[in-house]
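Record 1 of the preview.
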Amino acid sequence: MADILNVVVCGTRFGEHYLAALNCAERLWSARPAHLPRYRLAGIVARGSARSKALADKLAVPLYTDVAQLPGNIDMACVVVRSAIVGGDGSSLARALLSKGIHVLQEHPVHPTDIVRLRALAAQYGQRYHVNTFYPHLPAGKRFIDYARRSAAERPPAFIEITTSLQLLYSSLDIVCRALGKATPFICSEPLALQGALADYASPWPFRAIQGLIGGVPFSLNLQTWLDPQDPDHHSLVMHKIAIGGPEGNVLLANSYGPVVWSHPIYAPDYERDDAQSSYLLAADQFAESRFNRQPTATIFGKPHGPSLTEAAAHDFPLAIHAALDELMQADAPVHQDLWWQAHGDAWLGIMRAVGPAQMTSCSPPQPPYPNPVSYAKEYQS
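->
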């Protein structure tokens, strides 16, 4: 049986999902392969807010307000605090933890220069450091990556299409890089310029259009370049919508949480023929036997709908967080190669430089969708 590793979580905002995943770890142990480590929540590192104190009390774990207070039996730390590039203390926390001989899993985004330095520090202290982009480890992300990777191994894709926001560009690129197995060569254009009346549009323009190559594959990116400075983690018009494919079909991650859909364009063989065998009305059997006509126009991998956020938090998030912890401990994972995060970071920074500073705008809570999509879907259930 693998060792049980003691883990602390730094931060309790998004960090509460890490706390929940580790708090329910024992119910996941029976389903985990024997060679994988097991993880136990051993404490919270936070500033001591009422929220942090209440969570520590509820979960019956110690609350530490300084890394120096951590006992010697802590093996790993999840740093779920904003990194330096987005104005937080996450990177300095990671440094302090590594210097104390503790493995570190840090939530994204992290500047590639910081990653290089933290990886070097980890090596110096005989520890491991890894960035968690979270979404590739969700069940839908894993299915999407697996299918796209297996397809790309057989035949290089012809295109990549990404729609996302500034907040989620980092993780979107990691999903794409994992699907391709690489990020280079990379190049991107300047955003499509808004001209004339479009440039005078009063509301924030929903997406800026960028094209280029990533992993040598042509990509088109629709990027939301505005955010609410008072609530920067929310108000994405689209979180992750990514398609990879070619003439034979494409696989689509319709949403961060699924579904994953394979579909293909119509191709009618011998369409230009003009004889009695070229019409499906005249040669129905021959038409039906063609693989172009037999295969479904779309196939869903997994459930036909994404989970609710409550369902995702209870089921998908723990799986994703444990998968990221496993990846941290997997020494031969491709993402532990020095060039991986450098190539990923170059792509991320290249796009960020191309679009320039984010446009700040104040946002209200979203209105309920109309018609109600759940009720509307029931009208079409067979």
